[in-house]
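#lab-general

N.A. 3:47 PM
ok so I finally got the sequence cleaned up, no stray characters, all 247 residues accounted for. can someone with queue access submit it? mine expired

B.Y. 3:52 PM
send it over

N.A. 3:53 PM
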Amino acid sequence: METLPALLLVMARWFLYWTAYSFVGWAWETMLSVVLRKRFEDRGMLNGPICPIYGFGALLVLGLLHDVHDPVPLFLSSGVIACTLEYASSWAIEKLYHVRFWDYTGKPFNINGRVYLNGFLAFGAGATAVVLVVQPWMTAIVESWPNLMTGIAASMLFVAAAVDWAITQAGLHSFDSRLARVSEQIKMLKLEQIEAIDTRIDMADEMLTRALSWQQRRLVRIFPGLTSLRNPDVASRIRRILERRGW
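B.Y. 4:20 PM
back already:
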């Protein structure tokens, strides 16, 4: 009976690590948006302040490279692991939801537009810092907490993440079909030969409000490379409307 609580304690601690690194990833992405695009944007795919791919990447590196202490092989190995995860995530999202959230086509040393050199360098450097500096410090803090406190914190965060994930999944599953509906409505407007540009924009705005949820509009806005495989032009059209209207 003592093994199960010990196992649960380990799982709780690792979930807390995942949450922490997912939040750091969200903060990093959001900060980049503020610096590069001069405005605050919630850069997480989920509604909460986390980017799960950063959490999974950190745990993968910690699990596979925890005994590597030489910075050079650690940097190179971490970059490979992170880029492999990013590539796999991009491919899986595309196959599941028929949309691509990021596209590095045109970036230096990109692979099918899914990963590129800057990501390798950034993730390699970040993961090296995680293994050598951040994780030992974080482990000392989390392991100093009472077991009950660790379990409660992990349980509350898990429930919040699970609910957020479920809501996001529901939105993603209807995302492509709604983009297709918008595309058809735009074609209908063109066929009707609406000449007044202001009227067309107002009608498109009203149509967009009805067709996409708040979460789906947010994803279109914060992922400049997001495209629909079935309707490649509609996402960019929607993004331009959102930017014109300041949404």
